[in-house]
Amino acid sequence: MRNNLAIVAVAALSILPASLAAPQNSPAQKSATQKSPAQNASAPYVYPPPVSPDVPRAADGHPDLTGVWQGGSDRIGTWEETNSGDGPLGESGPITPYAIKGPQPKPPYQPWAAAKVVEAYNRRGIDEPMVRCLPPGTPRTTLMGLFPMQIVQTPKTVVLLFEVFHIFRIIPIDAKHPDDLEPSFMGDSVGHWEGDTLVVDVTGFNDKTWLSGTGTIHSEKLHVVEKFTRVDENTIVYEDTVEDPVVLTGPWTRHGTLMLRQGTRIREYECVENNQDVQRYEELLKDPSLFMRKPQTH
Amino acid sequence: MKYGVSAVCSAISCLLLAVALPARAHHSFGVEYDANKPVTLTGVITNIEWTNPHSFVYIDVKDESGKVTNWKFEGYPPGVLYRSGWKRNSTIKTGDTITIFGWRARTGGAWGHARSVTCADGKKLYFGPAPGIGDGGAAPQVAVPPSN
Fold first, then answer.
1. What's the mean pLDDT in B58-83?
2. How close A196 comes to chain B (CA, Å)?
3. CA-to-CA distance for A248 and B142, rounded, in angstroms?
């Protein structure tokens, strides 16, 4: 029986739609053989990493971020090549030499806020704001990998277009935040260039989104700084630093990569069309024993 | 054999759970579906909803006594499915016989979350994500434990 299971397991892992199989000798595979400038996995991460001499540049000399990208991935290739391993986000194909290694740090919550995060975990994410089709916020949306994002760069403005929830972010360059900001889901973004890195300052948030994973609450005092460095043809190395004196004990910095997805386009995602989850969640909440984890205080 | 396939798929899912995954779905898997209740069913498609934020496929499943039950399975939205090789009115159609692997709803009843669809010709496509999506993963997202 064990042998049979092993055979079935191998077969299950190898069953891929023929149309999604990666072609031989693709540009992606060629790129993966470039000399790796990856950071030492055991050393503290230093941002930004060295930029490849042949990184695409805009007319004004800055690295050109224009293109369709997939956050939360480190695989080189088209969407089809890199998302066919075991379905979307299947993580197939060669890995960018700029891949961020090792686990990312968890946010340093104050004890009272950490208790709320644990509570949300024990509730298995039933309080997820996205269930009501609300925008996931910043920086959470940036690395949301199931859906592509498009960056449009001009000398004065960088625009981020996200398929998920039809979110857009307009980032004026060398501008100041308006002085009449109302609290918002995605915040107000302004950008400037530091060498080859686009630095985006985001403020003016409401407290209705999560920072990343389940229950990662924040307050209206949230301040986010994102850094985008296109380091080669395929890769934007990304860093975000989150500050929130109401819920955190100090800054929280993460790193990730956005991967170029040539040939992919942003499609429609109209979340409220057939959203059955709100009603189903209300039914579940009548009997929390159906879904609650065995409580953990961590 | 049914047991074998389910057991293997469960093992694969557990493997996936061990990996830190980026946010990838509109809502939590674990709230509504039970990863300990895998189900593999073969039936005839009665309806397909190509809708956001989730698509649904309905199949009539006949048990050993001949009784037919209509099962409902949830999966990815159309944009995600199209990017991974699906096409409306082509990949699967009403009247097709398919085999669905997924996990049952916590509330019981004839519905669940579909991971994969295997067509009559043996072609297998992914219809939804693995378990553990959006429900917090293996541990809470905190670096500092509560003081109590």
1. 96
2. 26
3. 10
Residue from A128, A142, A282 to probe the interface with B (highest B Cβ count within 10 Å) = A128
d(CA B58, CA B56): 7
List, as one string, the DSSP characters of A248-281: BSS-EEEEEEEEE-TT-------GGGG--HHHHH
Instruction: Report pTM.
Output: 0.84
- Closest-CA distance, A211 to chain B, in angstroms, reads 10
Chain B residues with CB under 8 Å of A277 CB are: 26-27, 32, 53
Alpha-carbon torsion A257, A261, A266, A267, what sign?
A: negative
User: B28 and A125 in contact by Cβ < 8 A?
Assistant: yes
Element (H, E) at B105: strand B97-105
Q: Does B7 have pLDDT greater than 50?
A: no
Handedness of CA B88, B92, B95, B101 (dihedral sign): negative
Tell whether B80 is within 8 A of chain A (Cβ).
yes
pLDDT at B4 over 60: no
Cα separation, B6 vs A294, in Å, equals: 25
Residues 93-112 of B with CB under 8 A from A: 106-107
* Of the candidates A237, A162, A171, the residue with the CA atom closest to the CA atom of residue A202: A171
Per the CB < 8 Å rule, is A117 touching B144?
Answer: no
Selected residue with higher pLDDT from B143 and B22: B143
pLDDT along chain A (298 residues), means of 10: 34 28 32 42 70 96 98 93 79 91 90 95 94 96 94 98 97 98 98 98 98 95 98 97 98 96 96 94 94 76
pLDDT computed for residue A296 by the predictor: 65
pLDDT one-digit tens code per residue, B90-121: 899 999 999 999 999 999 999 999 999 999 99
Interchain pair A296, B11: CB under 8 A: no
Instruction: Please give the C-alpha separations between residue A140 and each of A77, A144, A216, B23, B92, in angstroms, as whole numbers.
Output: 24, 7, 10, 8, 34
- pLDDT at position A88 is 77
Residue A106 near residue B141, CB atoms below 8 Å: yes
* Identity at A201, one-letter amino acid code: D
Please tell me which of the candidates B27, B106, B129 has its beta carbon nearest to residue A130.
B27
Is A17 at the interface with chain B, CB within 8 A?
Answer: yes
Phi and psi based region of residue A278 (left: phi greater than 0; alpha: psi -120 to 50; beta: remaining): alpha
Sheet arrangement for strand A188-194: A168-172, A157-162, A149-153, A67-71, A252-260, A235-243, A223-230, A197-203, A188-194
Question: Measured between CA atoms, how close is A116 to chain B, in angstroms?
Answer: 9
